[in-house]
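Data availability (excerpt). All sequences and predicted token strings are deposited with the supplementary files. A representative entry, histidine kinase, is shown inline so that the format can be inspected without opening the archive.
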Amino acid sequence: MIFKRLEFGLFVRFILLLGMMFVTVYYLAQFTWLQVSSGVLVMLAQLWELASYVTRSNNELARFLEAVKQRDFSQRFNEHTTNSSLRQLHYAFNLINNTYKQLHIEQEAQFQYMQTILRMIDTGIMAVDEETGEVEWVNDAFRKILHLPYLKSIDSLEPRYPLLHEALQTIKPGHSRLLKLKLQEGTSQLLLSATAFTMQRRQLLLIALKNVSATVDATETEAWQKLLRVMTHEIMNSVAPIASLADTLGRHLHLEREKYAQEPAAAPDPELLQDTEEGITIIKKRSEGLLRFAHFYRNLSKSQELLLTTVYVQELFKSITGLMRPQLEELGVELRCHVTPPGLTLYGDVNLLEQVLINLILNAKRAVLGRPEPKVILTAGQENGKTVIEVQDNGAGIPEDLLESIFIPFFTSHKDGSGIGLSLAKHIMLLHKGSIQVESKEGVGTVFRLSL
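Structure token line:
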């Protein structure tokens, strides 16, 4: 529409200019110089007005573009001008100005919103020029953590916090570091993180600094509590069978002593002596295994080395049954063992493997309580060149939806459970480059398979 009106205006002015040229030429032929001079002056005025008419829109456009260049969107263009083409052009310019002003207001509001958030959070935030080390922006939390009134460059941190200055110089984008700094309130642990970004063709580094002393202390305390729970659980698992076996031996010896008091000349019962000897040997071995286990966990921060030896599975089962049978028989639980072939061996840490089997038998004992003819069966054999040990029970079984969670540390479905035994068993099997698997059916029983 603007261009059509412009073309119409040009056409009218061109016709008027041709008409004036015709009149001037007519008077020139009559040699009337006064009229000719007047005609020439009028044509010059028409040419000037035509040029002004053509360039008016360009001038307005140039003025608008200059305002955009200066980011000055406060200009208002007259929409009520007598020139209809300029009126529409001015309307378009004002519409663009209003749009940019609204976008600027929204950006400023968003900027102020982000500034408020960054000032309110307790994490220190700082933007640094990667090349110069100059601080572009820093929030109050950053200065408050380090007790600094202002911060212009990371180099100014070197006299007061040389360790932090070195970390800022060497930290890579996307990495984090835990620093221990001596602040006014005492030694604190600070988590330093860095992220790189580009703004206006400059490489900037966004630094985040957070005092995590309380969080680290709480995490360490929780870790120690969990470790103590593991230790307590495993010690109790070993001590209870030892106490049960010692009590059984004590009762037998007490009966033998009473018998000897009544019949001093009676010969000692060889079977009792053999049982006592075997019981003391089992208690000694389990005590040594318990000491080995405690030593194993005491060195968690070091490389965990296994005391690998050739283990005869028959002897392993004999030691386990001698330790666990008295406790199970008191509850009416039958314990059976089968090893095929009898000379089957494996290569592992006997003390830790005993700990695994004790945990599995205790879990089986809990599962079969209250079941008709409760029993726990230990079997061992070879499959695909590996030694496989199974611990089977005819207990209540494990619900299918819990099977994937039973090896998670501290997960338990029992009121008095700790959720430690199975996770520790899996950990020990992984140290042996082996595996532990479970098959269970509710109402039928559960089988744990150890492959070595």
